UniProtKB/TrEMBL annotation:
SUPFAM superfamilies: NAD(P)-binding Rossmann-fold domains
Family the entry assigns: Belongs to the short-chain dehydrogenases/reductases (SDR) family.
Lineage of origin: Eukaryota, Sar, Alveolata, Ciliophora, Postciliodesmatophora
Pfam families documented for this protein: adh_short
The organism's place on the tree of life at top rank: Eukaryota
Signal peptide: none
Keyword presence, Oxidoreductase: yes
Organism (species): Blepharisma stoltei
One of the record's GO molecular function terms: oxidoreductase activity
Keywords assigned: Oxidoreductase
Protein name: Uncharacterized protein
Length: 307
């Protein structure tokens, strides 16, 4: 009996070491990489959803600083115009903004997303950043309304799926390389109570990104260019979505997060971004089936019940 226990412990140990090694390899690879942004095409465009604050604004400023023209897609025309003006004053680029409330995509998603595509006709879109997202606010799935479920899917899944579907064929035909950045979440890596629909939506974004990344490798074979697909799994970033957080040691600023995310582009298929979030991602991956993880979930459940 002891021999079997020793064997199982040995296998578990090897598996843990392999997981840590693979995670560290991914981190080191992304840290050492240098992105050649000119490979995506001079004077090309980056389309960014929810670009007026948080990570979306961070992506807009960073990519504009690299010479990309920017398409801003969001719901507030005043903020869109303000960001558009800001980018053109700071960088020698062109901008275009499209007013779209992604909640409205629930009514007729095909019409909604095809209209975005129509409004960018003639633009050489080289980078697509699916940044739009919506949190369910710490509620058990059993008490969520059907409307909340629909809106969560409409905000977290449909933009990633539909916009990727609409722009990917054009990217395949481009002579230069292209990139798709999909904002998933560290919540996609473990089942956290109170974020059931959000975590599941972000799990879709993550797995979808990894699958499209693999498909793109085969589609682009022998073409001399490539399509880089990156799943971003950040932890808590200081954005409007995290203003209510009371526990903030692992919180990172937008500027701290954007640079390591963009540096990972083209070298790996997923990243947590900031080193704090990488450590948290490694921890949750290794402990999600053992006691420390169970204790964390018990605490989360207690806080939800108190509301």
């Amino acid at each position: 009996m002891l021999d079997w226990i020793e064997l199982l412990c040995f296998i578990a140990g090897v598996w843990t070491v392999l997981k840590i090694t693979l995670e560290l390899f991914t981190v080191i690879k992304s840290l050492k990489s240098k992105v050649n942004y000119s490979s995506y095409g001079l004077n090309s465009w980056a389309l960014i959803t929810a670009p007026t604050d948080g990570l979306g604004l961070g992506f807009a400023e960073f990519l504009a600083s690299q010479g990309f023209n920017i398409v801003l897609v969001g719901r507030n025309p005043v903020k869109l115009q303000s960001v558009s003006k800001l980018l053109q004053e700071k960088f020698p680029i062109t901008t275009k903004f499209i007013v779209k409330d992604f909640f409205d995509s629930a009514k007729n998603p095909q019409e909604f997303f095809n209209d975005i595509k129509a409004q960018t006709r003639g633009l050489d879109i080289s980078i697509l950043v699916n940044n739009i997202g919506f949190g369910s606010g710490g509620k058990y799935f059993a008490v969520m309304t059907e409307e909340e479920v629909l809106h969560s899917n409409a905000m977290n899944i449909w933009p990633v799926a539909f916009l990727t579907r609409l722009y990917l064929p054009d990217m395949i035909l481009r002579k230069s390389s292209s990139a798709i950045i999909n904002l998933s979440s560290i919540a996609s890596t473990f089942p956290m109570p109170g974020s059931g629909i959000y975590s599941a939506d972000k799990s879709f974004d993550n797995l979808f990104s990894l699958i499209v990344a693999e498909e793109a490798k085969y589609l682009m074979k022998g073409k001399g260019s490539k399509i880089d697909v990156l799943s971003v799994r950040p932890g808590f970033v200081d954005t409007p979505m995290t203003k209510s957080l009371s526990f903030r040691p692992l919180l990172t600023s937008v500027n701290e997060s954007i640079e390591p995310i963009c540096r990972a582009l083209g070298s790996v298929n997923y990243t947590y971004g900031h080193w704090k979030h990488t450590l948290l991602g490694l921890y949750t991956n290794l402990t999600k089936d053992i006691a420390p993880y169970a204790v964390m979930n018990e605490t989360i459940n207690s806080n939800i019940i108190k509301k």
